[in-house]
Amino acid sequence: MGPFLNKSWLFLVVCFGLMHYLANGATCKDCFVHSMAAHYPDSDEKGTETGECGFGSFGATINGGHVSAASDLFRNGVGCGACYQVRCTNSNLCSEKGVSVVVTDHGSSDRTDFILSRRAFKGMAQTTDAADSLLSLGIVDIEYRRVSCSYPNKNITIKIDESSNNPHYLAFVIWYQQGNKDITAVQLCETKNFTCKLLDRSHGAVWTTTSPPSGPLTIRMLFSGDDDGDEEWIVPVNDIPENWKAGATYDSGVQVNVV
Ligand SMILES: *[C@@H]1O[C@H](CO)[C@@H](O)[C@H](O)[C@H]1NC(C)=O
Ligand SMILES: *[C@@H]1O[C@H](CO)[C@@H](O)[C@H](O)[C@H]1NC(C)=O
């Protein structure tokens, strides 16, 4: 082979190597990603009720208090409610399984992707002694991957935010969203004449509208798609009653399957 052929051959090998690498990277959605995690500084075991997702008390206590603030994974609020398996990598202290946490807040600390509740942080340890050692480290190396959220015996539930004021202003968050998809859009529909309008995400997981229509309402949710499926509108079977109240919760009567 002359020098020209040699070069082409090398070029081909590099190309195939790169394609192979890219293809693996693109299909590896269950792979763990390396990062760092810290924990909330306060003495509270669970998360915070004032998390930037706007979930309120749900954001502190959901999933047994195994919750987290996310940095980039917060994704301007789209990441609120997403579940991640997080495990620390120190084989002396950390369990293989780690913990499953729900994103309920936004924040970062010294190159971390997660700030876990203390309960979740300790949950990554093999033993209670190891949990104390882990906690005193403050920041640890971790691996994480997105997993399905699971809320047995719960339907997707609409929580009307306390800032709401019927009939002038409606703000709400969506609780107990199972699975591993994002809610990327929400429509507010009048059930009597099926007129719908897209709502704005005001911050975190909070959707709002001024002058909501009168009459019973339905809140339709657009779930993101993936390689295997298209985006999908989930339509509740239960209406929000006309006399909805700030602070109240309404069972949608629907749930998405855990995959
Ligand atoms: C739909 O019905 C609601 C409640 O009855 C009413 O307020 C609204 O004006 C109606 N919208 C349209 C577009 O007809
Ligand atoms: C969920 O909604 C269904 C109706 O669609 C209802 O039969 C069921 O009782 C609800 N589950 C809970 C836990 O509220």
From TrEMBL:
| Annotated signal peptide | 1-25
Quote the CDD domains the UniProt record gives. Answer: DPBB_EXLB_N
Q: Which residues form the Expansin-like CBD domain?
A: 168-252
InterPro entries according to UniProt: Expan_Lol_pI, Expansin/allergen_DPBB_dom, Expansin_CBD, Expansin_CBD_sf, RlpA-like_DPBB, RlpA-like_sf
Keywords on record: Signal
Q: Which Pfam families match?
A: DPBB_1 (PF03330), Expansin_C (PF01357)
Q: Which GO annotations describe the biological process of this protein?
A: anatomical structure morphogenesis
- Residues covered by the Expansin-like EG45 domain: 50-154
Could you give one GO CC term from the UniProt record?
extracellular region
* UniProt record similarity statement: Belongs to the expansin family.
Show the PANTHER family listed in the entry: EXPANSIN-B3, EXPANSIN-LIKE B1
Please state what the protein is called: Expansin-like B1
